[in-house]
Every structure is written in C-alpha cells, then in structure tokens.
Design a protein that fits this description.
alpha/beta, 13 helices, 12% strand, globular, binds pyridoxal-5'-phosphate
C-alpha cells in the first residue's frame, strides 16, 4: 500500500525519541528523564482564563492571525524585552505552537531543492520539517569542545548556490547551550554576506541561567531577514494549549498567514485566552519555574559529573547533555541497556543529529525525586561495570 504515499513521506524517518517512550511504556517502575516538556501544571490563573473563555461561550474560531489583543500583547512583550517593534496588525501571527510556525516559515521560503543550514544537535522536527517543506536540510554540527556554539566557519563551509536560510534554535534542545554574542554575530555575518534568511526558534528564551537572552532580530542588520519563533509551551508550562507565535517583517508574516488561514484557520481559542492572561500576568510564574529549573539543573549537572559522565554546563532550556564516553558504548546501546537493566529512560544524543553521538539527553523538567532516583540508577549501572569514577564535580559558571 505504501506505493500510494508520496516519496517525501516515505523517506521521512520516525523520531528517534518516540521509540524509547514506546519501549518504556511497556515497563513498570520506569524513571524517565526523556520528557521535553514542563512537569508543572499551567499556573491556576492562566488555566482559569482558558476555562472562563469556554464558559463565556467563546467556542468558535478567532480571527485567522489570532485575537488582536493577544497579538498586541505579544508585540508589546517583545518590544519591552528586546526594544524592537513589530506591528500587531501584520507582523505578529499566532500559531498552533512553534511547531506550526516552523513549518510555515520553511514552507514560505523554500522552493524544491532549496537548502537550509540546520544547526545541530537540534530539535528532532527541524530536519524533518525542512524536508516536508520541500527543502534539503544541510546539517551543520556543533561540538562540546566549542560549548556547542555554531561557528561562522562551519556555516560558511556548507553554503551553496541553493542555500536559502539558516535554522537556529538557542537555547538549545537538546544541549542546553545558549549562543554567545560573539557566535550570534558570526551567524549574522554569514547571513548578510550570502543574503540568507534566519529562522530563529527562541522557544526557550525565558529559561536561561545567569545570562540574558539575545533576540536574533536585534543584531545589526538582522531585523529585515529574521523570522523569530516563540511561544507559550515551555516558559509558561502550556504545551497542551498549543499556542506559539511568529514575529517577523510583514513580507514573511503575510506569506505565512496565507498558508495558516487555509491549513489551520486559527489557533485554539481557549489557548489564546490563556496566553493573553499569561503574557499580562504570568511574569511571576515564569520566574518561579525558572528558579526551580535552575535548582534542578545544578543538582543534575553535578550528579552526572560526579559519576564521571562529563556534562557540559547548560545555560538555558531544561536539558542536560552528558557524555557517555567512559562507558565505551554507543549512545543507542547505552540507552537501550540502561532502560532494560535499570528502567531509566534517557534519549540517545544521535536522535538529535550526528554530532549528538556519544551523548545522551536528560531533561530536568521533572521532580527532584525523579532526578535523584535517576542518578542512583545510573550509579548502579556504572558501578556494575566497574566504571564508577567518583570525582569532584567542577563548579558551574552560573
Ligand atoms: C526547540 C523546540 N522548538 C519547538 C518545539 C515545539 O514547541 P511547541 O509546543 O510550541 O509546538 C520544541 C518542543 O520540544 C522545541 O524543543
């Protein structure tokens, strides 16, 4: 029957993350650090705003681009945080999560065969959506030796006459790296030199530790060529509400709007009501959750380092990306064996791109008890193999 399916769908590989959840789902007593979403429930006043919107009978579509008040609140939020102004009328688009926004951005930029430099290790959807939109994902690796910073040199080496865009996502899922100003400037230089569009997925912008997030569009000469994607899912613990947004010059947003209106109509109405409340009154909640993530971040990074699983210090998002080099196993075998023997679910780094090989992703968007249980299980696993290297954990930068 697969002959009925398009070649592009047939060649699309299933997410490397799903498989581990499927195996874990068949087991009892599994501890998982595999999940990429907040373990908090949406703060009560935000939740109530969504429910109230339903009670008030707002169960229809909204305007295609999103409720105007919400778009205006987003424009003000971005201006307040970064000092750049997008017009609520036509430069802000409310989408079904960053997921939809990402697809729209790629779809409006790419003709068949156009290339996108995809910085990896990255969110599993990135190369898949480039291909779904008809493009070619040119993977651009980053390395732990460079703190997972993308360099201008790495991008430059992959430019071709078909290169159309750079797809960046910092703070990074899965490494937790945040790009330094120096490296952001290198990306900007390449974009300008080769006249590329930058799609900057900044969904983790609010979850940073000991540094300030830099919005890519604020860099010199970048406003006109940058499509910034962000949303409610991670910062406000609202993954299920499905609200993301795009801020970009109108050439891009209007093109994205054309597809959005046919494909989606409008983002969930109750989700938009909740998002408006979140943006207006959720600042304290974001900060509270950020501080709690930061506490767990320290706990888990120190834990991995103490066990000899050298762990890069993540400065954003809620992921750690320790190296499993001491085990001598490849990351997939490591994760499978760990799940089988200790019922601990981590995600192999190679699920996020070739340069993730030899690492695993462990999320700390989970309870402290879970983190402690995971570290205990890991300790047992390593000890059984004579690999336990009790070490003093290096001090964190932030
Ligand atoms: C980097 C990145 N972008 C986008 C998404 C999807 O977000 P949303 O829930 O807004 O669709 C995720 C979710 O894990 C992510 O990690």
């Amino acid at each position: 029957m697969s002959r009925y399916l398009s070649k592009s769908v047939q060649s699309l590989r299933p997410s490397g993350i799903r498989r581990y959840f499927d195996i874990a789902a068949t087991m009892d007593d599994v501890v998982t650090l595999g999940i990429g979403e907040p373990n908090f429930v949406t703060p009560a006043h935000i939740l109530e705003a969504g429910v109230q919107s339903l009670r008030d009978g707002h169960t229809g579509y909204t305007s295609n681009a999103g409720v105007y008040e919400l778009r205006a609140a987003i424009a003000d939020l971005v201006e307040g945080r970064y000092g750049i102004r997008y017009e609520a009328e036509d430069e802000v688009l409310v989408t079904v999560g960053v997921s939809e926004a990402l697809y729209l951005a790629l779809k409006v930029l790419l003709d068949p065969g156009d290339e996108v430099l995809v910085v990896e290790p990255c969110f599993v959807a990135n190369p898949a959506l480039v291909e779904t939109a008809g493009g070619v994902a040119v993977m651009t690796p980053t390395y732990v030796e460079d703190d997972f910073q993308v360099t201008g040199e790495a991008l430059e080496a992959r430019i071709s006459p078909r290169t159309k865009a750079i797809l960046l996502s910092y703070p990074s899922n899965p490494t937790g790296a945040a790009l330094t100003l120096e490296h952001l400037m290198q990306v900007a230089e390449v974009a300008e030199k080769h006249d590329l569009v930058v799609i900057s997925d900044e969904i983790y912008e609010r979850l940073v530790y000991g540094l300030r997030h830099i919005n890519f569009a604020t860099l010199p000469n970048m406003f006109e060529r940058t499509i910034v994607l962000s949303g409610m899912s991670k910062s406000y613990a609202m993954t299920g509400w499905r609200i993301g947004y795009v801020t970009a010059p109108r050439t891009f947003t209007e093109a994205m709007y054309k597809i959005h209106q046919y494909l989606i109509m409008s983002a969930p109405t109750m989700g938009q009501a909740a998002a408006l409340e979140a943006i207006r009154c959720g600042e304290g909640d974001v900060e509270e959750m950020r501080q709690e993530y930061d506490r767990r971040r320290r706990l888990i990074v120190e834990g991995f380092n103490r066990l000899g699983l050298t762990c890069f210090e993540p400065r954003g998002a809620f992921y750690t990306f320790p190296s499993i080099a001491i085990t001598g196993m490849d990351d997939e075998t490591f994760c499978e064996t760990l799940l089988e023997e200790e019922r601990l679910a981590l995600i192999p780094g190679s699920a996020f791109g070739e340069s993730g090989r030899g690492f695993v992703r462990a999320s700390y968007a989970t309870s402290e008890a879970n983190i402690m249980a995971a570290l205990e299980r890991l300790e047992r696993f390593l000890s059984r193999r004579g690999l336990l290297q009790a070490r003093a954990a290096p001090a964190l930068v932030s």
